[in-house]
Amino acid sequence: MEEKPQTRPQCDISSAADFILSGGIGGVPTETVYGLAADATNEAAVRKIFAAKGRPFIDPLIVHVCDMEMAESVAKFSPDAKKLAEKFWPGPLTMILPKREKIGAIVTAGLGTVAVRMPSHPVMAALIRKTSRPIAAPSANPFGYVSPTRAEHVREQLGDKIDFVLDGGECERGVESTIILMTASPKKLLRPGPIPAALIEAALGEEIDKSPKKNEAHPQAPGMLKSHYSPKSRLRLFDSISEIPADFRGETIFFSRPKNPAPNQYWLSESGDVDEAARNLFALLRKLDKISERGIFCQRVPNVGVGAAVNDRLARAETKD
Ligand code: TXA
Ligand code: MG
User: Fold this and answer.
1) How confident is the model over 200-209, as pLDDT tens digits?
2) What pTM did the predictor assign?
3) Which CATH number fits domain 235-317: 3.40.50.720, 3.40.50.11030, 3.60.20.30, 3.40.50.300?
4) Which atom of ligand 1 is nearest to 99's Cα?
C-alpha cells in the first residue's frame, strides 16, 4: 500500500529560512508559544498567514526581530521603548510603536503602529538572523483557538496549510507575550504575559494603565475579545472545589497536584508553581478538549507573576452561559 505522506516533513533552520525567503509560511518555536511565520516585508506571504489561520485582516500581526538594528528598521523607538528593549529583550515583551515604511498595511491592519518583539528562543533568533528579514508571526493556531506550545500542536491543526514546521521543543513560557501600547499616555497593558506589569512599571519609573476598558488603539483586536483562546469543550472556572456541582462527572484541572487524584482529575503544576502552570496550560487544555464529553472545570491560579496571564487566558476561554 502506498504510504501516506506526513503532513509536513521535519525541517531545519536553513530550509525554514529558504521557505521564508521564497514567500512560504511555517510554524516556528518561540519561548512563549509557536508562531506562524512569514517574511514581514512580503505582502503575498503575509496574506497566506491570514488564510491559513482564518484570521480577519483587521487583526494586526507581531513583527519579530533579532537585534536592535532590525527593530529600528521597522519601528520608531522612543527613549522609554529603548529602555524596555534593553531590559527585557530578547524576551516575551511586545511593544506597540509607530511603524516605519518597511512594514506594510497588511501586517498592521492599516494602523500607524506596529507590534515588535525580539524573541529569546535560540532557534527563532537563528532563523531571523539567517533570513535577515523581520518575521511576522501570530500564534500558530486556527483563529480563536488555544495557542500551540509544541510542534505537534501546529502540525495537527495547520499541517496541511503551511510549508514547514520548525521543531524547537516545548515552549518554555507557555503563554503569549506581554503587550504594551507605548504610544498612549499613560502607556497601556494590552495583554498580560510572562513579564508582569509591575516589572515594566519599575523599569519605566511610571505607572501604566493595567486595565484599559478596551483596546483603544485598535478596538476590534481579537486578542482583546472577551471570548478568545477557547477550547471547544465547555470550560468553567473555580477557586474553591466547593464551587463544583456534586454531580459533575467531567474533567477537573487543579492548580497543583491533589493528594489522591481521581482518573478524571488533572493539575497544572506538580509543586504549585505558576511558571510551571503557564507552561502546561495550553497543552493540557488541548489534550482534555479531545476527550472531554461533559466539560471541564479549571481552577484559577494565584495572581502572582505569570499567574495573572494564566487567569486572563482562562477567563477568555471560559464558556459564558
Ligand atoms: O508571544 C507572542 O506574542 C506570540 C509569539 C508567536 O510571538 N504571538 C502572538 O501573536 O500571540 P497574536 O497575533 O496571536 O497576538 C498578537 C496580538 C493580537 O491581539 C493583535 O491584535 C495585537 O497583538 N496587535 C498587533 N499589532 C497591534 C497594534 N499595532 N496595535 C494594537 N494591537 C496590536
Ligand atoms: Mg493568538
Assistant:
1) 999 999 999 9
2) 0.94
3) 3.40.50.11030
4) 29
* 104-136: pLDDT as tens digits: 999 999 999 999 999 999 999 999 999 999 999
Rounded to 10°, the helix 122-131/13-21 angle is 40
CB 314 within 8 A of CB 226: no
137 lines ligand 1 (CB under 6 A): yes
Architecture label for domain 5-177: Alpha-Beta Complex (3.90)
pLDDT tens track for 3-57:
444 445 568 999 999 999 999 999 999 999 999 999 999 999 999 999 999 999 9
Buried b / exposed e across 141-173, counting CB within 10 Å, b at 16+? beeebbbbbbbbbbbebbeebbbbbbbbeebbb
- Identity (one letter) of the amino acid at 64? H
Tell which one of 49, 139, 172 to mutate to probe ligand 1, the residue whose CB is within 8 A of the most ligand atoms.
139
Q: Which atom of ligand 1 is nearest to the CA of 193?
A: 1
